[in-house]
Amino acid sequence: MVEPNTLKNPFVGLRAFEENEDDIFFGRDKEISDLIQKFNKTTFLAVVGSSGSGKSSLVKSGLLQAIHSGFLSPGCNWHVALLRPANDPIGEMTRALAAEGVLYKNVSEQKFLHRQ
Q: What does the domain layout of the chain look like in residue ranges?
């Protein structure tokens, strides 16, 4: 008999799958493969689509796990900035890129946002 506390529900409801939930994220292998192939040809990749279509889940539990598993150029030092554009897309992107360790180390967000 399996103890109830050891089972993990593979259905997360309406929220996006998180990066650490790749073990229960499935059914998007073709899309992940397509993203990896496109990412191998360019340094920028945007995943766009309708609200609720699974973009965040595809990126967090699919693409990022594939990158961390070595499916892109070996030896690359990947830095990831996750953001939701909300009502201030440029500001949100700036804050995400200014986060510790994304682009720079030991640079405060305040200094990054108010450069002269």
A: 15-78, 80-116
